């Protein structure tokens, strides 16, 4: 392992502005950045993309589109419009891919939400293709099936990606969401060329918060290196993206946190 | 829906002693009780079973056995011994079934834990058979794969139950653990006669604690009645067991909570 394929998500260092993040990542020789849309608020997006590249950073993804399911048709149309805006933002930023957190709507069945996800991706795929932006369907852990995603296994994401049969629609594999799945190895093998993104962190024992207690690689129980080998077995040679939501890490010094991320990446990924 | 098949787990009313629970359940015309082993501590188990029956309660299950995986052979042997003790306790109590929370050991792979679970059940099955006690493998939500169970889908539990091909080994379906699974309906249909137990509660939005924030039926997003129909479609005609771990509900009046349980059961199950 070396640092050449290490990417950090801006949300991982949430206390930093994107300008601060760019400088801090660059100082640590981190070469990849995935930009969360909230980090772009109030910025000129094109200029921000240029700034990141001038700091020596490669923009891996824009995070995140999706959230297609809604109880009303108006809500679903707004969601599609927002995803089209995300495609424009990705073009302006110079990001080649958008990660889709697909969504789930309280008050309707998961199957209805899943159908609305299919419809949403179908609506935006032609625009993504025209813009040259890849869409990565990210299955989320089943504990997020209530409101964040009705796509909860890699098998479901693969089914959906295969049904689109578009080079612009693939999947994102996040070890945090998928590590428990007895079908994980076979479903990663099944991905082939539509494995677009690989996200890493660890599962803390005990997990103190359902959303904001992700751990550094090596601190928990996820066999990150094993899963990385399966991912690379598909031919994937993209970045390894560190995506950590952590009240604990966000409360500390972020430059020091980046150094810990590098150490964890080199020794436990 | 009527109350004839309503069962409450002693853990659901954790602040009550088992003697208090028996009186409170009986006062509400609740006819089924599943006894957690901690509720029996310091009691004569045979006398406690008699007391429960005298209160008009049917003992549905003893909860819980399992926790087979351990890093050491000595740890695994202790686990098997404890499960044999649970079988003796079930006989003494007059409970016809033990629910197995299968376990997972930090420091080894889920696959290794799964193999140790198979070995553990194989070791105790002859004793369960001889004692006339059924063993119900309960798949737990994937968010408990770190330390509580390496069996996280009904498909896995069905695979295991089918491999044993014993009338004494089946599965427990708990809506809280399984509701998100896109294969749930087909896996329930697959259960057939080895669907031994049905546990209900609801998934609170937002879930504030990974362990102790279960909701009453109707308060969350689980389609409990839909899942009950699938369960009954297999021919299952056992109790509907309310199993709720909730810091919030435990802090209130337990008789009032039992009335809320009855209302939720009659209107949202």
UniProtKB/TrEMBL annotation, chains A, B:
Pfam families for the chain: AP_endonuc_2
GO MF, one example: isomerase activity
Gene3D superfamilies: Divalent-metal-dependent TIM barrel enzymes (3.20.20.150)
Keywords (A to Z) from UniProt: Isomerase
Presence of keyword Manganese: no
Domain Xylose isomerase-like TIM barrel: 37-259
InterPro entries for the chain: IolE/XylAMocC-like (IPR050312), Xyl_isomerase-like_sf (IPR036237), Xyl_isomerase-like_TIM-brl (IPR013022)
Keyword Isomerase: yes
Protein name, UniProt field: Sugar phosphate isomerase/epimerase
Organism taxonomic ancestry: Bacteria, Pseudomonadati, Bacteroidota, Chitinophagia, Chitinophagales
């Amino acid at each position: 392992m070396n640092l050449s394929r290490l990417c950090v998500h801006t949300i991982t260092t949430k206390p930093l502005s994107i300008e601060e993040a760019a400088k801090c990542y660059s100082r640590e020789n981190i070469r990849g950045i995935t930009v969360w849309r909230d980090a772009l608020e109030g910025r000129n997006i094109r200029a921000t993309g240029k700034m990141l590249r001038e700091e020596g950073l490669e923009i891996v993804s824009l995070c995140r589109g999706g959230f297609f399911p809604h109880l009303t048709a108006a809500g679903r149309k707004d969601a599609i419009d927002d995803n089209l805006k995300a495609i424009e933002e990705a073009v302006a930023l110079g990001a080649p891919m958008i990660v889709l957190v697909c969504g789930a709507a309280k008050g309707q069945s998961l199957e209805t939400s899943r159908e609305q996800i299919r419809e949403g991706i179908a609506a935006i795929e032609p625009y993504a293709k025209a813009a040259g932006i890849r869409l990565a369907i990210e299955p989320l852990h089943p504990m997020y099936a209530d409101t964040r995603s009705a796509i909860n296994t890699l098998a479901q994401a693969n089914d959906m990606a295969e049904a689109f049969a578009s080079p612009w629609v693939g999947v994102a594999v996040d070890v945090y969401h998928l590590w428990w799945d007895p079908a994980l190895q076979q479903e990663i093998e099944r991905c082939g060329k539509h494995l677009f993104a690989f996200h890493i962190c660890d599962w803390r024992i005990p997990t103190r918060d359902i959303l904001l207690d992700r751990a550094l690689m090596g601190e928990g129980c996820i066999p990150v290196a094993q899963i990385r080998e399966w991912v690379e077995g598909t031919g994937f040679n993209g970045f390894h993206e560190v995506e950590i939501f952590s009240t604990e890490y966000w409360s500390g010094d972020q430059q020091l946190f980046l150094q810990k991320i590098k150490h964890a990446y080199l020794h436990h990924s």
